[in-house]
Amino acid sequence: MPFYVAPEQQMKDKADYARKGIARGRSAVVLQYEGGILMVADNVSRTLHKISELYDRIGFAAVGRYPEFENLRLMGVRFADVRGYQYDRRDVSGRQLANIYAQTLGTVFSESLKPWEVEIVVAEVGDTAAEDEIYRITFDGSIVDERGFVAVGGSSENVATALKERFVADAPLSAALRAATRALSRENGEERELEEANLEVAVLERDRQHRKFRRIHGRRLTALLEEGRTGGNGSAGASSGGAAGSSGGGSGSDADSGADQADE
Amino acid sequence: MFEGFEGGRLPAAFMSAGTSSFTEFVRSVSPELLPGHHLPSGEGTEHLTPDATTIVALTFPGGVVLAGDRRATQGNVIANRDMEKLFRTDEFSAVAIAGSAGIGIELARLYQVELEHYEKMEGRVLSLEGKANKLAQMVRGNLGMAMQGFVVVPLLVGYDESTGTGRVFSYDAVGGRYEEHRHHSIGSGSVYARGSIKKLYKDDLDETGAIKVALEALYDAADDDSATGGPDLHRKIFPLVDVITEDGHRRVPTEDVAALATEVVEGRAAHPDGPTATLR
Questions:
Q1: How far apart, in Å, are the Cα atoms of B267 and each of B167, B224, B230, B263, B273?
Q2: Is A79–B2 a contact, with Cβ atoms under 8 angstroms apart?
Q3: A74–B15 CB contact, under 8 Å
């Protein structure tokens, strides 16, 4: 004889279960920089990716249980490729994918006993920074259209607060990466140093031809982290020199001085 | 099928561990999207789509050049003057097609998605051999259409990252795959183009030299084959040229091809048969 459980209680139990599951893993952040969108995750595995490519302009970041979000990733790639083949490559949008993820997660949350313990981000880089789209989709199928930056994961609120302090929309890549890694290191109230080997970094580069998604690892990542470090602690002159080296952007020194202030 | 996905769920196939092949996946969820899904019956169907003509490919140290004329013909009629028969399939490969244009374009488009789909699903790129074999299977899949008269033969070129060389693969209508060394040509004008390349090819060509040889060969094909189009200086229609090196795939800008093609045409004004090879 089954007990009666009020629907409110059922939903609350499921939500608590999902939140607890997600909180066990590390966070990920997605933020705009001057050349597009930067995605950074704290990930001990080098092959089980938390960040991947969905389509030409669209990237995917996820936290939580790997097999569950991997399923969602495969679904997204299949959907996007079929859509693009059926119509045109330009007809695949981040909004469509975000909607499908939201619907799928919503259905799973309300219909199955165990909700999926995942939180995902779908980011689409536009022709201009104003056309960039970043969507956060939570385990219950809620979808939020984020502006500028977003953090997902267990203690994403701490990370988001830390990121908000140092986020500059048109920062050069090294400064944006610095902001992202600093924010990720504030997880769970503790402050720890992130190891380079545990960082999964990718960008959606606005000016790149064809597919905009590119992973950053190895020497390039080391150089960018080093550049961000000297940019953050060194003198203003040194930091703007570093920025010019990476991107030649005139706004480099502005963004770096913003980061300097946040450091103090 | 999932066209009307609003408020529902995608079919279960989208979420299954399943296959990394796009073609196989599409065959299971919406086969009507694949080329050759409804095999036509009856004869005399050749007039339904025009024919794409001459393609040439040649390697040079550290890369490969692929070039094609722009003409499509239907019987004795020029169906299209500025057709694009070259397709970038991924960062390090490209295909060109000769034969039934309508089927060929669709095949190339599907192949491009196939390679990218595999890369995204698996998180790694297919080897060049793998890409060549995949294309062979897809051409073989078109055999039914080929027997109705819609024959398509592709030419695959790619940069092999493991050896640092450019490679060329040709196919027959049943999906036979042949690796070609140094140079190859397909399509109606290929006989003349091949003869021309053979005489001009050298093992130490640089990129520009290789492009020039390709343009001379296409000119020779157009000279003797009515279905191949030469450089059209008046309409500003020039052959398409793709180069693949360790830096990836690059479509040579129209201005650059125009300059080289004009040089070739002017050269022919003085010597109509083009450059001659020395006897030794």
A1: 30, 17, 14, 6, 9
A2: yes
A3: yes
Encode pLDDT of B60-88 as tens digits: 999 999 999 999 999 889 999 999 999 99
The minimal CB distance from A77 to the residues B7, B8, B117 is found for: B117
The two structure tokens encoding residue A198: 């545990």
Chain-chain contact of A85 with B110 (C-beta, under 8 angstroms): yes
Q: Which residues pair with A41 in a beta bridge?
A: A28, A200
pTM of the full structure:
0.87
Q: What is the mean pLDDT of chain B?
A: 91
- Could you report the predicted ipTM of this complex, rounded to two decimals? 0.88
- Residue A47 in contact with residue A66, Cβ under 8 Å? no
Is a pLDDT exceeding 90 seen at residue A195?
A: no
Residue of A nearest to B32 (CA): A86
Alpha carbon distance B139, B151 (integer Å): 9
β pairing state of B177-180 and A51-55? unpaired
Q: How far is CA B21 from CA A41, A77, B17, B26, in A?
A: 28, 12, 12, 9
Q: How many CB pairs under 8 A join A and B?
A: 53
Amino acid at A56: D
SS (H, E, C) A159-223: HHHHHHHHCCCCCCHHHHHHHHHHHHCCHHHCCCCCCHHHEEEEEEECCCCCCCEEEECHHHHHH
The torsion region of residue A81 among left (phi > 0), alpha (psi -120 to 50) and beta comes to alpha
Distance CA A78, CA B128 (A): 23
Chain-chain contact of A74 with B14 (C-beta, under 8 angstroms):
yes
What's the full length of chain B, in residues? 280
Chosen for mutation from B1, B2, B14 (greatest number of chain A CBs closer than 10 Å) is B14
CB contact (8 A) between residue A103 and residue B26: no
- Extended strands (E) in chain B: 51-52, 55-60, 63-68, 72-74, 77-80, 86-90, 93-100, 152-160, 165-171, 177-180, 183-186, 240-245, 248-251
Q: Could you tell me which of B86, B154, B90 has the C-alpha nearest to residue A209? A: B90
Tell me if chain B has a CB within 8 Å of the CB of A46: no
Residues in chain B closer than 8 A to A86 (CB atoms): 33
3-state class (DSSP) for residue B247: coil
CB A227 within 8 A of CB A242: yes
> Which amino acid makes up residue A31?
L
Whole-angstrom distance between the N-terminal and C-terminal Cα of chain A? 62
- Give the closest-approach CA distance of B119 to chain A in angstroms: 10
Q: Report the chain A residue with the minimal C-alpha distance to residue B9.
A: A104
Distance CA A211, CA B92 (A): 13
Kindly report which listed range (A135-144, B44-53, B201-210, B268-277) carries the lowest average pLDDT score: B44-53
